[in-house]
Amino acid sequence: LLLLAALRSVRLSLALMIPVLATNLLLFAGLGYARLPLGIASSMFAALTLGAGIDFALHYMIAWQRERRRGLSQDEAVQATLRTAGRGLRWNATVLAFGFAVLAVSAVRPNASLGLLLGVAMVLSYTTTLLFLPELLRRGERRGPGRHGPGRGGARSTGS
Fold this sequence. Notes:
Blueprint: H1 2-7, H2 10-33, H3 40-69, H4 74-84, H5 86-101, H6 109-142
Helix pairs in contact: 2-3, 2-6, 3-4, 3-6, 5-6
């Protein structure tokens, strides 16, 4: 709801949520495949992942929009985004993953589980953002800028 209020675009809000939702789906699938029961930590990590994992998509989108407003083609904007914001995204993922992973050495089992799950979730959120978001933004732009033209959640197409 906060994304929707800030971006004023259902399509863009959903596009930003897809990477972090995919992360949660992958982690829950992994827990199911390993036949691990849901406990306090494994049920709480999904909400925490949404809050922290959406950061990657937001930072990527803002950098990508900046590059598109500069007049770069979609492919050039992706490359420029990775050159400019990519390093910060990578460090953010690394610091969050290791920061949460510290909990994995806790003697309190729920804390250890939560730390491990959140550490993995941060790496997966970063990865799914880089895998899915460029194409999601590209597809959203092909459908037209709609209400979110340059500076408002999307950039106008430059014909690429």
